[in-house]
Amino acid sequence: MTEPSAVPDDNSLDGLRQRLSRFAAARDWEPFHTPKNLAAALSVEAGELLEIFQWLTPDQSAAVMTDPDTAHRVRDEVADVLAYLLQFCTVTGVDPLAALAAKIDRNELRFPAPGRPDGPRRSD
Amino acid sequence: MTEPSAVPDDNSLDGLRQRLSRFAAARDWEPFHTPKNLAAALSVEAGELLEIFQWLTPDQSAAVMTDPDTAHRVRDEVADVLAYLLQFCTVTGVDPLAALAAKIDRNELRFPAPGRPDGPRRSD
Amino acid sequence: MTEPSAVPDDNSLDGLRQRLSRFAAARDWEPFHTPKNLAAALSVEAGELLEIFQWLTPDQSAAVMTDPDTAHRVRDEVADVLAYLLQFCTVTGVDPLAALAAKIDRNELRFPAPGRPDGPRRSD
Amino acid sequence: MTEPSAVPDDNSLDGLRQRLSRFAAARDWEPFHTPKNLAAALSVEAGELLEIFQWLTPDQSAAVMTDPDTAHRVRDEVADVLAYLLQFCTVTGVDPLAALAAKIDRNELRFPAPGRPDGPRRSD
């Protein structure tokens, strides 16, 4: 019998994605993890992160990590957003790093950097 | 003079985070990138991902990637969410992988897997 | 045969709620209008309203209605949020005005106004 | 001296909007109530409403008001969404009922009801 914990933890993005999958499977949470539900949960958690900032001025917002309790709360909400994003990627088969790399490539063409008519990705 | 594009792209999570930082710096977008604004943008993009699913049944939701146009839209919104999450992490100094690993560790204690009173992280 | 439009429009909150119900019924949209779907749609529209403001400074935010195109967009998103909120109330049977009145009553006790230890609702 | 509570409460939409304004003014909360902050708070509260539904099946979602505690939570979140929407309307000068009436008028042209090529608003 293979114990999940027998495998040393791999805290790369894909290793964490797999840890989350094992975590959900061990608790029989998979039936709840439709793409729709995970997209809703992601949006809810993004709202919880925003809640920390909703009444702050830009300056207060920039200093948010100087208070240890708030810093902990920020890290916790970042973790929740990333967790649901990765679980969404698992059930839809999306590769988040490939999706982002493709998006940056497109944006480099769409928004050329000033002074570089062709955009930085095309200069050579 | 160092060209950003002279460095071969590194499409790891941290490589993409750095590409996004260079992208924003080259366009003078940094003043807009307060933690508050990036948290708002993250929430907006999570809403755009949810919009794809809002009227779907669970079964339709599970089949969402079978339509190429919808699949493209899903990957695009995943990229946007991840982009703003990484940019938020840049300006706050949060390590997203460490934050998620710590959260999974806490959740393994908080929600022990059935049949393992101590939880899978403590069995050995 | 009764025409919905034979009834003069009543643009009170409840009149608009009823117009929205007739609108959805005439298009057979009711099966999509589960409380869950309407809560998701409400959240998506609130995100679209927030999108208008995401990169604005507080001062720019305060001046948002001076530009006619942006003002139109703001009114349009307010309408969408209110539309989904009212449709949510229709399918759940929630009376939004009674819910808000009760909430304000509770908040007047929870956050007494400065200089009025008992709160303004209790003074008589 | 005029007590706010000396005026009988008017729990119409506009009466509640005014109660919220007096409530914020009495607590010196007005500086926080920029359009941007209120749009963020609205989005956060819409997320809290969605949170109630995120793991529910469509059938469970339809039965959400049968549990008294959940029903209370739903009414409370509806109140929060409406409160921030009204406060947003106060600071931007948007008339929410007029905005929604105009939107329904537009949608009746945009989505004609089946069997009524001109749409129900134009039949006479």
UniProtKB/TrEMBL annotation, chains A, B, C, D:
<dbReference type="Pfam" id="PF12643">
    <property type="entry name" value="MazG-like"/>
</dbReference>
<dbReference type="InterPro" id="IPR052555">
    <property type="entry name" value="dCTP_Pyrophosphatase"/>
</dbReference>
<dbReference type="InterPro" id="IPR025984">
    <property type="entry name" value="DCTPP"/>
</dbReference>
<protein>
    <submittedName>
        <fullName>Nucleotide pyrophosphohydrolase</fullName>
    </submittedName>
</protein>
<dbReference type="GO" id="GO:0047429">
    <property type="term" value="F:nucleoside triphosphate diphosphatase activity"/>
</dbReference>
<dbReference type="GO" id="GO:0009143">
    <property type="term" value="P:nucleoside triphosphate catabolic process"/>
</dbReference>
